[in-house]
Amino acid sequence: MKHTIGVILVIVVGTLLAWAGLGSGFDSLLLPRAAEEAAYVDRLLGMHFYVIAFLFILIMGFMLYSAFAFKRKAGDKGDGEFVHGNTTLEIVWTIVPLGTVLYFSVLGAQYLNDITAPEPNEFVVQVIASQWNWRFDYPEYGISSAELYLPVDRQILFELTALDTLHSFWVPEFRIKQDAVPGAVNTLRITPNVLGDFTLRCAEICGKDHAYMLAEVHVLSQANFDQWVADLLGPSDEETALVERGRTLAEVNGCFKCHSIDGSVLDGPTWLGLYGEGVQLEDGSVVVAEDDYIRNSILNPQDQIVAGFTDVSMPATFGRVLTDEDIAAIEAFIESLAVEHDE
Ligand code: CUA
């Protein structure tokens, strides 16, 4: 009886101390929340921590109490008292965990149902992941972006897919995430409710630059978001519009990750002063960089490899996301980077 009271005391006091610690500091260990869905996730996570803290103290309390209270006396060589079963205890340690797990599964199902429920005015953003780039399409406006712009307090329906391998869409401040899978479209609903800048990360190992597969996320007021859309829909003069479209397409498809436009050498040749010049290929031949060559390099990147650029091979997936008009726009953009020759 003395020991029963003793161990219960240790467990109750230990649990209350642990809970006091969680109550004062748990939320500060997490990144701030920036979406409605995040509150559900944090509530569930917090409740689990309280239960886990109790379990930890329960097990450690029994162990430590026993280690001190039932320590073998000097010279005692006998065996411990033999104990056979305890029906009450066995019923309790079956029913209580079963009830706890059932409670959490019902609660989890409810939350999942709430989080994934569509709202009437949801806004669609298509996300195309590839090695190692995020592209965001806004079908309502016919625009694309390399950074994710979102209106605040409006449910966003993300339609996620990938071109090459598995990636995963994750903004830690939004808490929830979803895989982007080649050949499939996965959906994810998020309602950002805090203005600000965040970072999207890839949360699925996807190759060499997985850790750097980031994109900036901007949550704007509806008015600022509309302004951003208007700016992108942009210039009216046809030639400028084509070049600008080419620049945007190159940006959103990740071209600039490997091809600079300032002359610096990255994994691929720079585009600065490329158009109209002779290019030395790996097989020794020389080709003039005009529309046909650029088009072939986009669609069949392994066909005409530039001398000195065999380390990293360019993805052969661009033919699946770029139309003929898109390629013409990118060619116009590259042509705008040509060096002037006085003749
Ligand atoms: Cu994409 Cu990791």
Brief write-up:
By secondary structure, the chain is α+β, with helices and mostly antiparallel strands. The protein has helices at about 1-25, 35-70, 85-115, 220-235, 240-250, 290-300, 325-335; strands at about 125-130, 135-140, 145, 150, 155-160, 165-170, 175-180, 185-190, 195-200, 215-220, 280, 285-290.
Main β-sheet description: 5 strands, mixed
Q: What overall geometry do the principal axes of the alpha carbons give? A: elongated
Sheet with the most strands: spatial strand order: 3-2-1-5-8
Number of strands: 12
Roughly what is the average pLDDT, rounded to an integer? 90
What percentage of amino acids are in beta strands?
Answer: 15-25%
User: How many individual helices?
Assistant: 7
Instruction: Give the % helix.
Output: 25-40%
Order of helices and strands: HHHEEEEEEEEEEHHEEHH
Distance between the termini: 105 Å
Q: Ligands bound here?
A: dinuclear copper ion
Q: Could you list the spans in which at least 5 consecutive residues all have pLDDT below 50?
A: none
Q: Could you tell me the radius of gyration in angstroms?
A: 30 Å
Category from helices, strands and their pairing: alpha+beta
